[in-house]
Design a protein that fits this description.
With 280 residues, this protein is mostly helical. Helix content is 76%, strand content 0%. The chain contains 9 helices and no strands. Helix 1 packs antiparallel against helix 5, helix 3 runs antiparallel to helix 4 and helix 3 crosses helix 5. The chain starts with 10 loop residues before the first helix and ends in a 14-residue tail after the last helix.
């Protein structure tokens, strides 16, 4: 069933209702088969919901909000298992074309990927069909319907907190810090999208485009780092030298992304300067 906006819905309700609709649509598509795009859209919608529950918490029923955040975190962990193997599969197939590896190693890796993707997808479908997941979506709909439309939303105050948090972050080039900064930029993008109606549309879209560019670089870093880690955990001892070459390729991608982000961050090409905190 398609979710619809009501005439009196404000930004809080619209943010939640839109993501609820996306989750229902893509949950059905994921249940039908292991296509990559529906899972991606489902994960993004769930991430946006989790952020909205925290970002707009004062406009929501706090008891339900805390519980729903836990439920969405649990659901995303199951989604992440399938997503990680999708990304791993895509990257490894390209890496195998870069270096000369034995046909037996290629076959072994591809067989492992096939088995793990199949298992992760079965676990995901089981979760999507569960009564617990369906209840989570019903609770989200109820929460969005009860969101306060009377309390005045001050977009500049909400955005200012995120911007100050980002400006305090140091451009440290170690993975843990980069992961935190990646999450911070993701949250900033979601906030800009939710609150875009209060701002000059052209300027906000320019800011979002710059934020997405940073997200893409940090996402590449994260994917390369995860792929290298997953490679190191594969139990293929007889081909450890060849496996090591694949790991080195991903580590190089990680380093390249780190350098690119450092350059972008220091030049302030992060979209931060384009966000005028004075709402329309």
């Amino acid at each position: 069933m398609r979710e619809r906006f009501r005439p009196h819905d404000g930004p809080v309700q619209k943010a939640l209702v839109a993501q609820l609709g996306s989750m229902r649509l893509n949950s059905a598509k994921v249940r039908q088969g292991p296509a990559v795009e529906p899972l991606h859209d489902l994960r993004i919608a769930s991430l946006r919901v989790s952020f909205a529950l925290k970002f707009f918490k004062k406009f929501l029923s706090t008891g339900n909000t805390d519980r729903l955040q836990d439920e969405f975190a649990r659901a995303r962990r199951v989604m992440a298992q399938r997503r990680d193997w999708d990304i791993f599969s895509s990257r490894i197939k390209k890496d195998l074309q870069v270096i000369n590896t034995s046909s037996s190693l290629k076959q072994t890796i591809l067989e492992i990927i096939k088995a793990q993707k199949s298992k992760a997808h079965k676990d995901l479908v089981k979760m999507l069909r569960s009564s617990r997941y369906k209840k989570m979506l019903r609770d989200l709909k109820e929460l969005s319907s009860a969101a306060s439309s009377k309390r005045k939303l001050k977009p500049q105050h909400l955005l200012r907190g995120l911007l100050k948090g980002l400006e305090r972050e140091q451009a440290a080039l170690q993975p843990p810090e980069l992961h935190k900064i990646r999450i911070a930029f993701k949250h900033l993008r979601y906030a800009c999208e939710f609150l875009a109606v209060f701002y000059d549309e052209k300027k906000m879209q320019e800011a979002i485009r710059d934020i997405v560019k940073v997200q893409d670089v940090l996402g590449e870093h994260q994917d390369a780092e995860n792929t290298a880690r997953m490679l190191s955990r594969l139990k293929i001892t007889e081909k450890s030298e060849e496996l090591g070459k694949l790991i080195e390729i991903e580590k190089k991608y990680t380093l390249d992304a780190r350098k690119k982000f450092s350059k972008m961050y220091r030049s302030k090409r992060c979209g931060l300067r384009k966000i005028n905190l004075t709402a329309i």
